[in-house]
Design brief:
Number of strands of chain A: 10
Oligomer: heterodimer
Distance between the termini of chain A: 81 Å
Radius of gyration of chain B: 12 Å
CATH class of chain B: Alpha Beta
Shape of chain B: globular
Order of helices and strands of chain A: HHHEEHHEHEEHEHHEEHHHEE
Structural class of chain B: alpha/beta
Structural class of chain A: alpha+beta
Number of helices of chain A: 12
Distance between the termini of chain B: 12 Å
Strand content of chain A: 15-25%
CATH topology of the largest domain in chain A: Heat Shock Protein 90
Number of domains of chain A: 2
CATH superfamily of the largest domain in chain A: Histidine kinase-like ATPase, C-terminal domain
Shape of chain A: elongated
CATH architecture of the largest domain in chain A: 2-Layer Sandwich
CATH architecture of chain B: 3-Layer(aba) Sandwich
CATH topology of chain B: Udp-n-acetylmuramoylalanyl-d-glutamate--2,6- Diaminopimelate Ligase, Chain: A, domain 1
Largest sheet of chain B: 5 strands, mixed
CATH superfamily of chain B: HprK N-terminal domain-like
Strand order of the largest sheet of chain A: 6-7-8-10-9
Strand order of the largest sheet of chain B: 1-5-4-3-2
Largest sheet of chain A: 5 strands, antiparallel
Largest interface: A-B, 26 and 20 residues
Order of helices and strands of chain B: HEEHEHEHEH
Number of helices of chain B: 5
Number of domains of chain B: 1
CATH class of the largest domain in chain A: Alpha Beta
């Protein structure tokens, strides 16, 4: 494997911070698959197939005796020794890591040793998990996504009056009724300044407002992104949870999960999503419980009417 | 009918208004406390009559392009609502009339 190039001088600070902040126990796979010393290599083959793992710590009575991998299994197959005990083929001195170690140290282990996995021990030297490149990748990606989303939300493109494209992301806090609607008001003003037709402004403002209220009422917080191009306008609402259990029900007029407090504010009649869909030219919603909800409402702007050729006679305008 | 005439019809106390709006022609009234419903209605430049006193009634009025919000049932909008009305350029008024009475008065004034 190519050594990982992770030097403190070259890595962004945010990334280094992440590597020190994350501990082995945050990253390791906890559903540890183990095997006894006396089990046969054939048992190991079945276990690897069933549990879809390529390395198995050899554990008895919470004590780690070694590790046996798919390479060892190939050896046993080649030697036709599938009925031999695991203890014969395992690597008895497995390199282990401690669950409290920062991830940065473990990553250096992948360079230092030629192993693809390290069993994880707790303070009493009991095996509690296993760490692989895959478990590190998925956790790091998750953390990086989260961090990037946070940075993206803070970053607002400078507004250039002459720009053909306008883009802005608003952060909407959970249950923040004092500020809900501010983004939609601003969006409406931007569209007016861009000379968009009043009827279109109204439709965009309604969708933006419904989605903004939804973010405040139903989500754990999220973002409302507004994008205006020459030929279309887009409102995108994204949140990080809790997600909608049944999207087709949520799209049904009158279906609501809003509480009395929301209803007292004049909302929660179960019309928000259907109304946003009604005013939009295109409407997409995707949601998963525990993940979040993404909604996109698109508005197609009519093409600018081409100016008639100069040769056409112009009608006389009375009083002109 | 001019906005100022409609406001007189419900004996409204005007809390903030843009003088330019007084002569605005208003032909539609939306009478509702449910902002979700207001957002569903297609009425050009309406006057919104509501007994819901909150920033959200003003924001809803703004989103649907209403020229004025009249608060019924004698309720008194707090000072921050008056500020928001000014920011949004929406005439804010209140009336002692109940919402039904105010609806009837506005309907009569509009010849409905």
């Amino acid at each position: 494997m190519e050594p990982l190039q992770l030097t403190a001088e070259q890595s962004p600070l945010l990334f280094l911070e992440l590597l020190y902040k994350l501990r082995v126990r945050d990253v390791m796979a906890k559903d540890l698959v183990t095997i006894a010393r006396s089990a046969t290599m054939r048992d190991l083959k079945r276990l690897m197939q069933e549990r879809k793992v390529s390395g198995v710590p050899v554990v008895e009575n919470k004590r780690l005796y070694g590790i046996v991998s798919i390479e060892d299994l190939i050896q046993a197959l080649e030697k036709n020794r599938m009925d031999a005990p695991v203890s014969e083929f395992m690597a008895p001195n497995a390199v282990t890591v401690e669950e409290n170690m920062p991830l940065s140290i473990v990553m250096s282990y992948f360079n230092k040793y030629d192993y693809r996995r390290f069993p994880v021990l707790n303070a009493s030297n009991e095996p509690v998990g296993i760490i692989t490149a895959r478990s590190i990748n998925s956790r790091l990606l998750m953390e990086l996504f989260r961090e990037l989303a946070r940075i993206e939300n803070q970053y607002v493109l400078p507004v250039d009056d002459n720009a053909t494209c306008y883009f802005k992301t608003y952060r909407i806090q959970k249950a923040d009724f004092d500020n809900a609607g501010k983004a939609s008001t601003e969006i409406k003003n931007v569209l007016r300044d861009r000379g968009i037709a009043a009827k279109t402004i109204r439709r965009v403002a309604i969708a933006a407002y419904e989605l903004e209220i939804n973010l405040a009422v139903h989500s754990d917080g999220g973002t409302l992104t507004f994008r205006a191009d020459e030929d279309e306008i887009q409102i995108v609402s994204k949140d990080q949870g809790p997600g909608i259990a049944d999207v087709s029900l949520a799209m049904k007029e009158g279906w609501t999960t809003a509480n009395e407090w929301v209803k007292a504010m004049g909302f929660g009649a179960g019309m928000g999503l259907p109304n946003a869909k009604r005013v939009a030219d295109e409407f997409h919603i995707a949601s998963a419980l525990g993940v979040g909800t993404n909604v996109t409402a698109r508005f197609i702007l009519p093409k600018a009417v081409p100016t008639p050729p100069a040769s056409l006679p112009t009608a006389a305008v009375p009083g002109a | 009918m001019k906005l100022s005439e409609l406001l007189q019809a419900v004996e409204a106390e005007v809390l903030w208004s843009d003088p330019a709006h007084d002569a605005t022609d208003v032909a539609n009234v939306i009478s509702s406390d449910l902002m979700s419903d207001v957002l569903m209605m297609d009425a050009e430049q309406p006057l919104l009559l509501s007994s819901l006193v909150s920033d959200q009634s003003l924001r809803t009025a703004n989103v649907v392009g209403a020229v004025a919000l009249v608060v019924a049932n004698g309720k008194i909008p707090p000072p921050n609502m008056v500020e928001l009305a000014q920011e949004l350029g929406i005439t804010l008024a209140r009336t002692e009339m109940a919402k039904f009475e105010a609806s009837v008065a506005l309907g009569k004034a509009l010849g409905r």
